[in-house]
């Protein structure tokens, strides 16, 4: 996980997981609309997953 991805996950979570697939993007986007913190947490968890 690079520093740029982490910063992107903090400031705009859906954009950080765009390369992980459409499903991840939609989930993080919905969580970000519900609240900024759930979106950031989901983005960081998805970025930490090696798969």
UniProtKB/TrEMBL annotation:
Pfam families named in the record: Pmp3
UniProt KW keywords: Membrane, Transmembrane, Transmembrane helix
Lineage, uppermost ranks: Bacteria, Pseudomonadati, Bacteroidota, Flavobacteriia, Flavobacteriales
Organism encoding this protein: Maribacter caenipelagi
Protein name in the entry: Uncharacterized membrane protein YqaE (UPF0057 family)
Subcellular localization, as worded in the UniProt entry: Membrane
InterPro entries: PMP3 (IPR000612)
Example of a GO cellular component annotation carried by this entry: membrane
Main location group: membrane
Family under the similarity heading: Belongs to the UPF0057 (PMP3) family.
PANTHER family: HYDROPHOBIC PROTEIN RCI2 LOW TEMPERATURE AND SALT RESPONSIVE PROTEIN LTI6 -RELATED, UPF0057 MEMBRANE PROTEIN ZK632.10-RELATED
Transmembrane segment boundaries: 29-47
């Amino acid at each position: 996980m690079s520093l740029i991805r982490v910063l992107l996950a903090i400031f705009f979570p859906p954009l950080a997981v765009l390369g992980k697939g459409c499903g991840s993007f939609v989930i993080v986007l919905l969580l970000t609309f519900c609240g900024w913190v759930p979106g950031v947490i989901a983005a960081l968890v998805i970025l930490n997953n090696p798969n």
